[in-house]
Amino acid sequence: EVQLVESGGGLVQAGGSLRLSCAGSGFTSVDYTVGWFRQAPGKDREGIGCFSSTDGSTYYADSVKGRFAISSDNGKNMVYLQMNNLKPEDTAVYYCQARLATGRTYWGQGTQVTVSF
Q: Closest Cα to residue 68, out of 53, 51, 48?
C-alpha cells in the first residue's frame, strides 16, 4: 500500500523557516513526481511546487518562488520543502502528492503550518 506522510509543520514567526518532509512508502518506482500543495481556511487547495525524479527538475508557483525550495533523497523516498522568509499568508495545511509512473496519485494527510505576525 502506497503511503505518504508529511511532517515538519508547526508555528513560526514571520521571517522564519521550516522544512517539511514527505516520506513515501509502499512503492519501488524511481520514476515519480511529487507536488506540494497547501490549503488555507476558506480557500481552494493551491499547488505551490513540484519535483520530478526523472531529471530533478522543480517548479514553483510565483507566490513562493525564491523563498521555497524542493529537494529529495531518492534513497530514502523523501522529498523536502524548505520554506524560508515565511509570511502570515503562508499559513495553511500543507500536503504532498505523489504521481507514480502508473499514473496513480496519492496524497498525504497534511501538516499544519502557522506563521504569526
A: 48
Mean pLDDT of 61-74: 95
Q: Is the dihedral of CA 83, 51, 60, 47 positive or negative?
A: negative
Q: Is residue 20 classed exposed, middle or buried when 0-12, 13-18 and 19+ CB atoms within 10 A define those classes?
A: buried
Average pLDDT over residues 67-71: 97
Partners of 81 in the β-ladder? 20, 70
pLDDT for the residue 28: 75
3-state SS string for 42-53: CCCCEEEEEEEC
Mean pLDDT, rounded, for 42-66: 96
The continuous run of DSSP H or E covering 71 comes out as strand 68-73
Please return the burial class of 12, using the count of CB atoms within 10 Å of its CB with bins 0-12, 13-18 and 19+.
middle
C-alpha pair distances (Å), 60 with each of 4, 26, 54, 83, 116: 21, 27, 17, 12, 23
